[in-house]
Amino acid sequence: MQEAPQPEKFSRLHMIESKASFSLLFLLSSNIRLEANDCETKFMFRKNQYILHYSSKESTAELWTESSEALKYLQIQINYKYIFNLIDPESSKENADILENMIRNNYIFLHQRTPPYMTVEMHMILKELINYSKKGMMQRLFVEAKIIKLLILIFEQFNEKNTVHQEPEIPLAVKKFIDENYHMNIRAEDIGKLTGINQNKIRKEFKAQYQMTVKDYISELRMLKAKKMIVDQEIMIKEIAIECGYEYVQNFTRAFKKKFGMSPEKLRNGS
């Protein structure tokens, strides 16, 4: 993780790529310029864009910004042999194609030569990586698991970008985030802060796609999950309330009764 504290204009940070390695580079501040010294290639990135880059030999790059915002990026470097063993290209043509795309740097520009934007899930994973405090074996296992998840998300995003018919990116990403985190206290404002997308844009595009607000979708999903747990599982109503994102069981009971016309206890007892 690199962060330059309010640098002077045009001051630069140096990034090194090892021989036969992949670099995941996440740009976390605005208008970052990158110049690869070995091939004199220049890029201009917006905030929250990323690239997955393969370097066959050791190389260096310089990053700088003309923005008043501090220069900040996260680089994850992965050895080629690790990726080879992970993907196992000899096991199937699909796996071989994935590795070939990685080596040819096809994951830098996914669509119309535009660097891809981080998804909500990617933001969450980076936050977890930055804030993780344990050391030793636990840290290694945690980091490896998160890197593998990031790679899966990149491959999925690559496939989505190359599919003609797909749901709009912002509503789909927000829905996926809610589906996986409905038990948390989440609002459109929080999702906006994580992604750098204007919260009004999130609200507008989500409602246009799914014909309901973000808040209503969260409430609907929680109630449906709660109903299924009450019917299918023998756990306390209080535990179900917490699992569905309610701190106080009274608020959960009130919302449940409003939705289904009966209390959770009556549904469980069949009365």
TrEMBL record:
InterPro entries: Homeodomain-like_sf (IPR009057), HTH_AraC (IPR018060), HTH_AraC-typ_CS (IPR018062), PchR_regulatory_protein (IPR053142), Tscrpt_reg_AraC-type_HTH (IPR020449)
HTH araC/xylS-type domain segment(s): 172-270
Pfam families, A to Z: HTH_18
Molecular-function annotations in GO: DNA-binding transcription factor activity; sequence-specific DNA binding
Domain of life: Bacteria
Keywords: DNA-binding, Transcription, Transcription regulation
Protein known as: HTH araC/xylS-type domain-containing protein
Organism whose genome encodes this protein: Chryseobacterium angstadtii
